[in-house]
C-alpha cells in the first residue's frame, strides 16, 4: 500500500476539485487528507491519497491528473509520502499568532520569516489581506517554550517599526476563547505542546 | 485555529477598543490572623498577604505579555476585618488597617478591600468599632477600601446602622477635607453585598468563599460602544433588539478573556479560580465610557426620558452574554454608572441633564447604585442616611445589589467642580432635593422588616 502527496496549481474555475478527485478515485486511490485555497484567482490544493495493491507510481498518477486538464492548464506535483518529523520535534512549544499591519512594501514577509527562522520559530500558517496600500499579515506560529516571549515581541516590533509597521504577538488561546463556544477550561486543557514526544 | 476574521476581530478589540482585564483580585481569608494582641495580628496579616500575594503582580504581568491583554489593576480582598476586631479597643482598627496598607504596598497592589462589616440584621461590638474607625482609617491609609452591608432581601434594612453611617460618611469627608473628601470614595455602603465581587472599593472575601481565591473583573465599555457604532453604521434601521443582540455577543467575547486570565492566574498561583465579573466599568478616558454606550444607542442627552430603559437593555444583554460565556460568572456583572469615573456621565451632570433622581431610577436596573456621587459638604447626615435607605429599598425589594459611594465635599456647594484625578476622575457637586425633609422618618431608627419577597422557601 502506497501513500502519495499531490499538489495542483491551476487558474480557478468550476469543477477543478471534481477533476482532481475523479482522477484519483478512478485509479483506485482513497483521499485521506486535503487542504485547498484560492489566492488571487489561483486554485491550489494539497492532498494525500492511499492506493492499495495497484501498480500506481508518481509519474502515472501525475499523468492521470494532468489528463483531466487542458494542455498547460495545471501544474501538478506528485511525491511518495514519507511521514515527516514535526518541525520542532522534541521541543516543547506553544502556539502564538503574529499580526502585522501597516503600509505594504516589498520584503516584509522575508524580513519577518528570516527573523522567525533565526529563533527556530516555525510558521504553521500565514495569510495576507490588502486594503488599498495597507496590508495585514496574520501568521500562526509555533514558538519553542524556552524562548522569552517578551524578548521576541520587542525584537519583532523594533524590526518592523523602522517601516512604521505595527506588530503584535499573542498566545493563540486568546483567540480561541474569544471565538469558540466550548468551555474555557477545556480549551486550556488542550494545550498542545507541539513537537513533544 | 480561528478564522482570519475572528483573529482580526480580537486584535481590534485589544488594540483599538480598550479591551482589558480591569482587575485580578486575590481573595485571602485573614481569620487565621485573629489574636488578642492587635500588633501580633497585624504582623500575621502582613506575613500572610506577603506569602499569598507576593507573586500576584509578577504573574499578572507575565500573562499580559503572553496574551497581549492588559491587566490594569491587581488587588486583594480580605475576609471582613470586623471579625478580627471583636474584643478589641478602637485603636486596634487603626493598627490592622495600617498593616493592610503596608502589606498592599509591599506586594505592589494598588488597593486592598475587606475593611468590611456585615450588619444587615444587627451589629456586633467589633463591627461598630470598624464603622466608627472609618474616618481615621480612610484618612491615614492610601490603599485600604471599606464596605458595609446594611441590608439584604432576607434580613431587611438595619436603619440604626444607616443612621450611624450617615454621620460617619460626613466625618470621613471632613477628615479628608484637604483632598475634597476623597476618603469617602473608598467606602461603599451595600444592600445585598456580593461575596465574590472583585471590583473596588467594595471587594471583600465573603464567608462562603475559599481560603484563597482568584476573582477577575473584566470591563470593555469601549468594545461595546464600538460594536454598537458598527451595527448602527452598517444597519441604519436596526432595532433595539438588534442592539441587544450585538451587546450580548460582545459581552460573550469580553467575559471569555476574563475567564482565561483568571484560570491561568489561579493555576500559576496554586489557588482556586472563583468568578469572572463582567461589569461595564468605565474609566475617565475618552472611549472607555458607559455613558458613550447610551449615546451610541441614541440617548444624545444622558438623563433624557428613555435613559433608564437604555441602562436596563445594556445591563440585561451584558448578563446574558456573560452567562453563556462562562459558568463561573459572579460578582456584580452588569453596567456600572460611577458618575465621576465616566466622562460622559460627569458631563451630563455638569450640563444638568442627569439628576440624582434620574440616577436613582437608573440604579433600579443597573448592577450597582449611586456610585461616585459628589454632594454638598453641608448635606445633613439624615439626608445621607435617607439616600442610603432609598437605595437599600430598591435593592432589597428587587432582590439585587445596590450600593452607594457618596462624597460630601467639605466647603463645596451644588454646581462646583471637583477633581480627584486618575481613575477616580472628576465631576460636579450634585444638588440634593429637600435635604431636611425626611429627618423625622430617618430618626425613627430600628429596622425595616424584610420584604415579602424574602419568604421564598
Topology:
The complex is a heterodimer of chains A (197) and B (457).
Chain A: E1 2-11, H1 16-26, E2 29-39, E3 42-51, H2 58-66, E4 74-80, E5 93-103, H3 108-118, E6 122-131, E7 134-144, H4 149-161, E8 166-171, H5 173-179, H6 184-189
Chain B: H1 4-15, E1 21-28, H2 38-53, H3 56-67, E2 71-78, H4 91-106, E3 111-118, H5 125-140, E4 144-152, E5 156-158, H6 159-175, E6 187-191, E7 212-218, H7 221-234, H8 240-269, E8 273-278, H9 290-296, H10 307-325, H11 343-351, H12 356-363, E9 370-376, H13 381-397, E10 402-409, E11 417-419, E12 426-428, H14 439-443, E13 447-448
Helix pairs in contact in B: 2-4, 3-8, 4-5, 5-6, 6-13, 7-8, 7-9, 8-10, 10-12
Label this structure with key terms.
heterodimer, A: 197 residues, alpha+beta, 2 domains, 4-stranded antiparallel β-sheet, 29% helix, 39% strand, globular, disordered C terminus, B: alpha/beta, 11-stranded mixed β-sheet, 13 strands
Q: Describe the main β-sheet of chain B briefly.
A: 11 strands, mixed
What amount of the residues of chain A lies in strands? 35-45%
Low-confidence parts of chain A: 192-197
Tell me the strand percentage band of chain B: 15-25%
Q: Level of helix content of chain B?
A: 40-55%
Fourth CATH level, the homologous superfamily of the largest domain in chain A: ACT domain
Number of helices of chain B: 14
Largest interface, chains and sizes: A-B, 32 and 29 residues
> How would you classify the helix and strand content of chain B by structural class?
alpha/beta
End-to-end Cα distance of chain B, whole Å, is 48 Å
Distance between the termini of chain A: 27 Å
The Rg value of chain B, from CA coordinates, equals: 21 Å
Write structural notes for this entry.
Chain A contains 6 helices and 8 strands; from the N terminus they run βαββαββαββαβαα. Chain A is of the alpha+beta class. The two termini of chain A are about 25 Å apart. In chain A, strand 2 (about 30-40) and strand 3 (about 40-50) form a beta hairpin. Chain A folds into 2 domains: about 1-80, ACT domain (Alpha-Beta Plaits, 2-Layer Sandwich), CATH 3.30.70.260; about 95-190, 2-Layer Sandwich (Alpha-Beta Plaits). With about 450 residues, chain B is an alpha/beta fold. Chain B has a domain at about 25-60 and about 70-190: Anaerobic Ribonucleotide-triphosphate Reductase Large Chain. Chain B is built from 14 helices and 13 strands. Chain B has helices at about 5-15, 40-55, 55-65, 90-105, 125-140, 160-175, 220-235, 240-270, 290-295, 305-325, 345-350, 355-365, 380-395, 440-445, and strands at about 20-30, 70-80, 110-120, 145-150, 155-160, 185-190, 210-220, 275-280, 370-375, 400-410, 415-420, 425-430, 445-450. In chain B, strands 1, 2, 3, 4, 5, 6, 7, 8, 9, 10 and 13 form an 11-stranded mixed sheet that branches. Chains A and B meet through strand 5, strand 6, strand 7, helix 4 and strand 8 of A and helix 1, helix 3 and helix 8 of B.
